[in-house]
Specification:
elongated
């Protein structure tokens, strides 16, 4: 059955709806059967008694007859039987729409489903019979019913790391590389060079997909949405423009194409161009242009701030994962694949929003997003169970997102992306991502609450190694997500944190 999400705006509106809402609506005599295919699914069958159908018809005709225009009669003077015969189809549509709306409203009041999506109903399959009751059905995704696990007194290890001057200088070079001048190079490629590549993926000699002229920094690994080329750096070290290299890569099990699940594909990488980067000189005019920095120390402070925000995000993620493992240990609910697939995009939205507000650039976000998508179903299953528990805890503790919470997160995203906050908000609203932002805010507040009651031990940790380049391409050819803006090497990027003037310049 081809189902589409039902919305009250999709249902036919009965005439004089304002007048009818003023009257006290009589409850329908409904026979409701609820089936539970899984912990997160409900299939609802509804039977509306014939008496309710006839009463609704009579009410509609009572409204119509006094003003009906029928040829040969003055308005409102045509016999009722003639009006009924002439307007039966129109009134039937209105009655069907009204009964569906009233029934759905009554069901939502009488049954606590804790829905996590709109009901799926095939409106074209709903028939209003001339005799007997009216039956319709719909499916609904719901939060499972469960008792909250004990969340006070958890044991948590918080990773800590003191950012060194050497790490700041290394990150400064990565930041300045965004503004670097690109120079064509005829010699062999070395680590850190930019390669313009054509990639072709084949299986049993047939081309599965390809991508042309992707500019990629030469690092140890190359990340894609549904695979990873783990020997990328070793393979292309020493390669020159015009040369080709071959390797293999294994496609993840999460792709939709059955013939590609877990398959090892052949990869051909053609080097179109090799380029060296020339870092810009830190002149007063350059420092002012990229963010209104007074001097090099001012820029270094901004770079350190960006590193600190990234480190705070990683720390929060590690704490969150420890909490999740403990809270979901007994959450053995059966999550249907259809639900996971639909929620995977929302989970990706949530992660990307967190990364943007935590000081990560597009290239790093692309790498994180690719990692998530390569294990999409498993990651989403864990994230969804975590969301159910955190959401229920938020309800019990009356935790919600306040207007100032939205402002704070939007300001952080705006600062990182270099556009005004109002434009960020408009973009989030247009893409339907405000719900993801709300979930992010609430869940972070709940994690903070749990942490405040936990036994926390600080554990030294090392920063992650920057050894992975990333491109937005799926070997399987999947194009089911909105592309994350790719970093354009050699073009002016978003400003650094602490540089509002640059953001204003970029948006003008």
């Amino acid at each position: 059955m081809n189902t589409t999400p039902i919305d009250e705006n999709d249902l036919p509106e009965p005439e004089n709806s304002e007048e009818q809402t003023e009257e006290k609506q009589e409850k329908l005599d409904l026979e409701v059967t609820v089936e539970s295919p899984s912990a997160c699914e409900r299939h609802v069958t509804v039977v509306i008694a014939r008496e309710d159908i006839d009463r609704c018809f009579e009410s509609e005709y009572d409204e119509l007859v006094p003003k009906a225009e029928v040829p040969g009669f003055r308005p409102g003077r045509a016999p009722r039987k003639l009006v009924v015969s002439r307007f039966k189809d129109t009134i039937s549509d209105q009655v069907k729409g009204k009964l569906l709306m009233d029934a759905m409203g009554q069901i939502s009041e009488e049954y606590e489903f804790s829905a996590i999506s709109e009901p799926d109903m095939d409106l074209s399959a709903v028939d209003l019979p001339d005799e007997g009751p009216m039956t319709f059905e719909f499916s609904l995704e719901v939060r499972p019913e469960f008792d909250l696990p004990e969340w006070k007194g958890l044991t948590i290890e918080t990773p800590v790391h003191e950012i060194t001057d050497e790490e700041v200088q290394a990150h400064l070079k990565r930041v300045l590389a965004r503004y670097s001048k690109l120079v064509d190079f005829d010699g062999p490629a070395a680590e850190g060079d930019l390669l313009t590549l054509n990639l072709t993926f084949t299986l049993n000699g047939d081309v599965v997909s390809s991508v042309t002229e992707k500019v990629v920094p030469l690092k140890a690994k190359l990340s894609l949405r549904d695979t990873e080329i783990s020997d990328f750096g070793q393979l292309l070290a020493g390669a020159k423009a015009g040369e080709k290299r071959e390797t293999k890569a294994k496609v993840t099990e999460d792709v939709e194409k059955e013939e590609l699940k877990g398959q090892e594909v052949d990869v051909e990488l053609e080097v179109v161009k090799v380029q060296k980067t020339e870092l810009p000189k830190l002149t007063h005019s350059f420092l002012d242009e990229i963010g209104g920095f007074d001097d090099e120390d001012d820029l270094v402070d901004a770079v350190r701030e960006e590193l600190e925000r990234q480190q705070k995000y990683r720390q929060q993620q590690e704490v969150r994962q420890q909490i999740t493992r403990q809270l979901t240990a007994t959450a053995n609910w059966d999550l249907p694949p259809t639900l996971l697939k639909k929620q995977a995009r929302r989970e990706l939205q949530r992660v990307v929003l967190e990364l943007r507000s935590s000081g990560f650039n597009d290239e790093m976000i692309q790498s994180y997003a690719n990692q998530l998508q390569r294990n999409s179903m498993t990651h989403t299953a864990v994230a969804l169970k975590e969301h159910f528990i955190l959401e229920k805890l938020a309800e019990e503790e009356s935790i919600d997102a306040e207007p100032e919470d939205y402002d704070t997160q939007i300001d952080l995203i705006a600062e990182q992306s270099g556009v005004p906050p109002r434009r960020v908000r408009a973009r989030l609203e247009k893409r339907g991502e405000m719900d993801s932002l709300r979930n992010q805010i609430i869940e972070r507040k709940v994690i903070d609450l749990i942490t405040s009651f936990a036994g926390v031990t600080e554990v030294p940790t090392e920063p992650p190694v920057d050894d992975e380049a990333a491109i937005d391409h799926a070997v399987s050819g999947a194009e089911d997500r909105e592309a994350i803006p790719e970093a354009k090497h050699g073009e002016e990027p978003a400003p650094l944190p602490g540089a509002p003037s640059a953001g204003q310049k970029a948006s003008s």
